[in-house]
Each structure stands twice: as structure tokens, then as C-alpha cells.
Amino acid sequence: MSDYSFSPAPTRRVAIVGGNRIPFARSNTVYAHDSNQDLLVAALQGLVDRYNLHGLRLGEFAAGAVIKHSRDFNLARESLLSTTLSAETPAYDLQQACGTGLEAALLVANKIALGQIDVGVAGGADTTSDAPIGINEALRRTLLAANRAKGTGNKLRSLLQVRPSMFFKPLLPRNGEPRTGLSMGEHCEEMAKRWQIKRLAQDELTLNSHQRLDAAYKNGFFDDLISPYRGLARDNNLRADASLEKLASLAPAYDRQNGTLTAGNSTPLTDGASVVLLASEEWAAARGLPVLAYLRTGETAAVNFVDGSEGLLMAPAYAVPRMLAREGLSFADFDFFEIHEAFAAQVLCTLKAWEDADYCRERLGLEAPLGPIERAKMNVNGGSLGCGHPFAATGGRQLAALAKAIHQRGGGRGLISICAAGGLGITAIVEK
Amino acid sequence: MDYVTQIIDPPPSRNRLLLDGLLALRKPKLEGAPTLPKARLVRSAVELIANDIAAYGRACGFRREQGVPLSYPHVLAFPLHLMLLTRPSFPYPASGMVHLANCIRQHRRLQEGQALRLEVFAERWVAHAKGQALSIATHAYSAGELVWQSESLYLRRDVANPVGEPWGDSLGLPEEGLRRTQRWVLPADLGRRFAKVSGDFNPIHTSLIGARLFGFRRAIAHGMWTLGRALAAQQPPGGLDVAEAHCEFKLPIFLPGQVALWNAPADGPRRAFEVRNPAGDKPHMRGLFIWHPRFDESRP
């Protein structure tokens, strides 16, 4: 036998010890002057305070933001340095569109499972209020050419190409798919038409999301999941007085003639941040911290939406059956479903797809449809339609809330599903 | 037909072409049937220059990994088209010739740095319902082999009793089943940007005043830009080997503006497509894009 052979250590369970987020705020409201880093620091420091992690060196901090300036290349590390965690805690950034937060959690969890680290924090932040604005593309190219030019004369000649108009046409971040030029709402509108999702069903789902979120706040569910920030104690997108009549009065936002998606049944641009504390059972026990639930596994998927053969936000429809088959589970084995509500229509399309025998056979390769999801088990403490959706912060919000719901119930199993730009989807199973 | 081969070297300057265009604004009224120009205009070695291709690609939305755009050689041949149309012996004013349709066939992959021999000649007259159309052929050879060719159909409106074979809707495209898959926002300076990379400074694309002079209320997008944009949007990753693109130009696209790409969902290595107005009820372009897949795209 070679001197270098080794036996990998057995994998171990990954405990979700807790989570923390700041209340989510609609874009350009209370967090208008906060950067991604400010928001992420607030969420992370809140977690450190709650679990008394001051001065501790953790295995790692993994986090990201979707809308990010190039100067924030080390967002996670810079954020960590602004907290009372030990400065010797390593950190790294990652980005998977709206899947960023959950993907970060899977990466940290996998390292814990493999024994590479004992404890880590995963998170994400996003602000569309403090969005990066780039300089005009023509100006940028001209400046780069001047930078490449050799000699002062050549540099000056390059700079002569600069035109005054270049200064007044900045490059704004786009709320659209790079390859199609269509906004996510327009893509989802196409999906709603393909799956014949009614406006009323979307509005009902939206109302439910607000009502359940409001009830969860009233029950104190979020008391140990949220740190107030800038005077905000709950998500300011939440409309406790929402009604079907009010939702029905909103005009379609993406297709004014035949559309069913409105500002009400779509998530607004939102600012916020969330983090989750993951650890080995031994670490949690040594710190005297109870385990809320275990992060069992995850699965990502992607669909070809560019040529229109699949809807942009349908990837979770593929990820979930793959994950269930791998784990030998079915919908009947779940007590909770945490489905990210980018749009009410996108949730309803996915649910309908899982009930459609033809679709399940032809697209998902299943002999029988996955079946319906019991609505009473879905987004029991509200969803993105109610609280808003700061892209990279949604995964952490869902993971912490689901773990707590399972803990409160005294055990159970839950599924998380998130759709993301670029035809991506990410899902996970949490249980205890 | 016997053509007279004329080597063009150096290529005509932009000002020369504009001046010839101006001089050809008026032509004496044609008596009897038009005669086909006999010249075959040839540039013996035109290099596919990487920087020029990159600039053209940026203007049309091609990505670098897509290689030499299928529509790019047209840009190199276009000055020769214009020379043919502005010759004193050509029966109609060049400015009145409307680009009606274009058909491109590529037989071999094009490479940056490769030199092409370009041959441009008037191929045949075509009788169109709206007037007299003329087909101009472009052949591109590399090492003696035909690697790329195109047929450009130009129309002179309001010519009674046009000669040639009748024009038919040759594409046979589906009327139904297309779906909107993309939207493009077209800036006001798109015409000028495309002029810089294509060398076609036709004022109807580059300026409001120029457009007004020729009866348009605003500058209009260049048809070959629209074709380039549509091909860029639909080309699979990687360069093209054997490929075809056919298109018919419909209503003009006014700048600035918005248009949408409609096409049929995945159906093997071919796409029927239309570029339509934002409401989706008026076509600016109808086309068909066919490519030879580099691997079996039908596998599950």
C-alpha cells in the first residue's frame, strides 16, 4: 500500500444552530444610504451578539451579493472585519443570482460534513438602492485604450476620443436577463401564459404570504431571527391590511393588455441581509447551543430558457425530483415547503408542473407526477411576496426560518426551493 | 452571361462612394427593358481583420466565442455592391434601391486573419409586385474554394412591367407558433455605430436630416444590423461551420426604438424568426437561420 493512501473521514451531520437577518426594506426606503457591506455587517453582528461569538475564530464565512460593485471584491471578508468575530476567520465571496444565500450555506455545510471545518456562517446581502453605476461603455473603452497607449503623446491622442456626451450617459445596472433583454417579470408573464395561471390564484397566494408573515410577527416567530436595524423592526413591504380587493385593483405590470402579474403579486426590489450559523453537532454541544435542524442535502439545476424551450424560473421543477430520487423521498415525507416567491405566478407554475403527468414524464423523466403540495404546509411563516426579496439574502432567510419551524414542531422535514436568474434553481432538504 | 472582371484595388473610399451615390441620384428615364450590368467587381485578397470583426461583433451583439459572424463578409463586399449600383451604366438611381431580402450561405468556417477573394456581380432581374428587383451575388473564395456566398435582392419601386422571373415568398416560414424570446433596446446612435463598423454611411441610417431627405420621419436601423443582431442572438456557442441565413426586410425600424425577437422554440439546428415591433403585431424582418451542428444536438 502506498504511503500516501488514506481513508476519508466519514461525513457528519450539519447542524443549523441559528440565523439572523435584518428586516427587509423596500428599495430606496430606510436602507437607501446603506451599502451591501453595511447590511451584511448588521446581519452578521446581530448573529454574533445573539450566539455570543465575540472574538471566536470560525471555520469560515461565505457570503455574496448579486448586485455588487467591483470594489466589493472581498465583500464577505471586509464585512467580517467590521464585526467582533476574530479577524482570523477566513471568508470568501460567491454569487449564484438569487441562489447565492442557499448555495453559500451548502458550501459551508459540505465542509462541515467532510470535517474540514467545525463551524461556519453563510449569508448574503443585496441592495438595489445603493446600486453600482458604471461609466459609459464608450468612455470606459477610451480610457482603457489611453491606459494601454505608450508615451504621453499617444495617451493624449487616445484621450482626444473622449466626447462630452460620454459623461452624461452612465451605465446603469439592468434588471433583465443579459441574453434575452427581457425582464424577469416578462419572462414570468410568459410562464404564466404557458401554464394558464389565473390572476385570482396569484393574488390569493400573495394575500396568504402577507397574512402568514404578519401572523408570524405577531406570534413572535421572528424574535430570535431578526435584529432591528435603522429603526426598522419588521419588513416594510409587509401589508397587514392587504386584501384581495386591493390586489385586484392593481394594473398588470409587464403586459398591460393581457398580463396577470402586478406590483402586488410580484416581489419588489428590496434591500436586506441574512446569515445562518452552521456547525457540527459536537461544536454546538460544546457551546451549549441547541440544534434547530440539520441541513441534509441540496441540489441545483439549470434550464435552457434562451431559446424559449423552458421558462426562465422553472429550474427548481427539475432540481426537486432529482434530489427526492437521490434521497428516496416523496412529497408525502415533508412537513414544510419553503418555496421562494419571486412571483406568485412562478410558484403556481412550478406547483402545476409537478402535478402535470405529461410534463413530469416528458420533461422530468418521471413515471408518475410528483403530485400536489399541501398548501397548509407551504411558506407557513410567510414568503418573499410578503417580506420582499433582497436577492442574495433570501436563501439565508428561508433556511433559518425553516429550521426554526421544524424545531418548534419538535421535528420534521422541510424542502427549500429557489429559482434564480440565468435559468438556475437551487433546492435543499432540512430535517430533524 | 459573360462578365467583365474588374479588379478593385485599392477599395473605394467612403467619400468616393458617397459622391458616386450623389451623382447617381438622378438617372434618365429608362426606355425599354433594363440590361444587366456586365461587370464582375473583384477584390483579390481582403483580410478578415480581428479588430474590425470585434468592432462589428460588438455593434451587433456577437460574442467573441461565436467566431467570424455569418453576416460579416457582407460588410466587406458592400462597397462593391454600391459601386455596381452607382455605375453610370446602371439604369436606376442607387439611392432608390431598397434592400428587400438577403440570403447567405457559408460552406466553410471563416477564420480571423484569413484572406478572401470577393467577387460581386449582378446575377439576374427579378419581377416583383412592387417594381423591378435585381439580385446581386457575392462570392467569397479562400484558396480557390467557394467558402461563403450571398444573394442580395434590391428593389426599384414603381417600375411597370418588371422583367425576370417572378419573386415568390421563398422562405416558406410558419406564420404561427413563434414566441417572443428577446427584446432589444436600440439607441439613437445605432445607425452611426453600425456605419463605423460596416462602412455604409447611408444618411437614412446615420442622421435625422438624412432620413428626412429620403422621406423617413427618423433615422432607421440598417437592415444588415438587424440581421446581424438576430443571428448573434440565435447562434449556438462556438463558431459556425456550414450555415445559412435567409431574411426578408419588412417595415423599417425607427431609431431610437425597441423591437422584439420572435422565434420558434428549439427544433433542431434551425430557427424561423421574426423581428417585430414591441406590440408584436408588425414584422420588421422575417428570416430563417440554419446551421450544421458540431455535435448531435438531438441527443437527450
TrEMBL record, chain A:
The keyword Transferase applies. The keyword ATP-binding does not apply. It comes from the Bacteria. Signal peptide: none annotated. The active site is at C98, H389, C419. GO terms for molecular function: acetyl-CoA C-acetyltransferase activity. Residues 14-282 form the Thiolase N-terminal domain. GO terms for cellular component: cytosol. Residues 292-432 form the Thiolase C-terminal domain. Keywords: Acyltransferase, Transferase. It is an enzyme of class 2 (transferase). Its EC number is 2.3.1.9. PANTHER family: ACETYL-COA ACYLTRANSFERASE FADA2 (3-KETOACYL-COA THIOLASE) (BETA-KETOTHIOLASE)-RELATED. Belongs to the thiolase-like superfamily. Thiolase family. This is Acetyl-CoA C-acetyltransferase.
From TrEMBL, chain B:
It comes from the Bacteria. This is Acyl dehydratase. It holds the Pfam family MaoC_dehydratas. InterPro entries: HotDog_dom_sf, MaoC-like_dom. Gene3D superfamilies: Hotdog Thioesterase. It comes from Pseudomonas brenneri. Residues 191-256 form the MaoC-like domain. SUPFAM superfamilies: Thioesterase/thiol ester dehydrase-isomerase (SSF54637).
